[in-house]
Design a protein that fits this description.
By secondary structure, this protein is of the alpha/beta class. The protein has a single domain (1-13, 84-252), classed as TIM Barrel (Alpha-Beta Barrel). It is 42% helix and 15% strand. The longest helix has 26 residues, at 181-206. The chain is globular, with a radius of gyration of 17 Å. It starts with 6 loop residues before the first strand and ends with a helix. It binds 1,3-dihydroxyacetonephosphate (13P). Residues 11, 98, 168, 173-174, 212-215, 233-237 line the site of 1,3-dihydroxyacetonephosphate (13P). GO terms for molecular function: triose-phosphate isomerase activity. Keywords: Cytoplasm, Gluconeogenesis, Glycolysis, Isomerase. It catalyses: L-erythrulose 1-phosphate = D-erythrulose 4-phosphate; D-glyceraldehyde 3-phosphate = dihydroxyacetone phosphate. Pathway: Carbohydrate metabolism; erythritol degradation; Carbohydrate biosynthesis; gluconeogenesis; Carbohydrate degradation; glycolysis; D-glyceraldehyde 3-phosphate from glycerone phosphate: step 1/1.
């Protein structure tokens, strides 16, 4: 049995003005005042808040990550952010291939893999997102879709230290709907098998697999207890410290 330390990560998406730093401070206070959870904690704010959040999280158990990075080296690419820039400012991880980027920016598995490789090159942990859409689920294509996305999006050089997988069914994001615990167990179990087959027992069993999609304090306990669920990638409920801390409670 491989020990995988769970991660509860908050993806703030395109939310948060400077005043939102108060939520980070409130989360740090909750983590200091309440029993220490048996998990890592990360917040990925928008780029504009990275610097103040890194400063505010210093000395706390909260790590700060980016929500995306370019696959390219620094240079003439207006509007893009290189992985090395995230690392330089104090981020330790970056989300790549979120379904909103796959949809809004037509990101392909190939591009997502290149972004993960750029993250590794810069010394960042790549959190690689995969997940089926509702029509794919209705056509019973869930396992095919996640298997194809894993093959295309996860770099060959993935290790348990540099890569985390996040399974986020697209239809569960921001909808209040979640798969059943049995469905999550099936998908995460398949992801685990694919990882072990490709990377071998050590790495395949060491890679963490997060679940994301409408995780709330009320359902976190049940979802986090599912086999091969090694934490959560949380959107809406990560914006308020009390809600996010209520999800972290799954590991207290
Ligand atoms: O997309 C997500 C995290 O990356 C999940 O978002 P919600 O938790 O708002 O459903």
């Amino acid at each position: 049995m491989t020990d995988r330390r769970p991660l509860v990560a908050g993806n703030w998406k395109m939310n948060g003005l400077s005043a939102a730093a108060a939520e980070l401070d409130a989360l740090a206070k909750a983590l200091a005042d309440r029993p220490a959870p048996a998990c890592d904690v990360m917040i990925a704010p928008p780029f504009t808040l990275l610097a103040p959040f890194v400063a505010a999280a210093s000395g706390t158990p909260i790590a700060i990550g980016g929500q995306d990075c370019s696959h390219l080296e620094p240079g003439a690419h207006t509007g893009d952010i290189a992985a090395v820039m995230l690392r330089d400012i104090g981020a330790t991880s970056v989300i790549v291939g979120h379904s909103e980027r796959r949809q809004d920016h037509h990101e392909t598995d190939d591009l997502v893999r290149l972004k993960a490789e750029a993250a590794h090159e810069a010394g960042l942990v790549a959190i690689v997102c995969i997940g089926e859409t509702e029509p794919e689920r209705d056509r019973d294509q869930t396992l095919n879709v996640v298997t194809t996305q894993l093959a295309g999006s996860v770099p060959d050089a993935a290790t348990a230290d540099n890569t985390i997988i996040a399974y986020e069914p697209v239809w569960a994001i921001g909808t209040g709907r979640t798969p059943t615990a049995a469905d999550v167990a099936t998908v995460h179990g398949t992801i685990r098998e694919v990882l072990v087959e490709r990377f071998g027992e050590d790495i395949g069993n060491g890679l963490r697999i997060l679940y994301g999609g409408s995780v709330k304090p009320a359902n976190a306990g049940e979802l986090m207890a599912v086999a091969n669920v090694d934490g959560a990638l949380v959107g809406g409920a990560s914006l308020k410290a009390a809600d996010f801390d209520g999800i972290i409670d799954a590991y207290r």
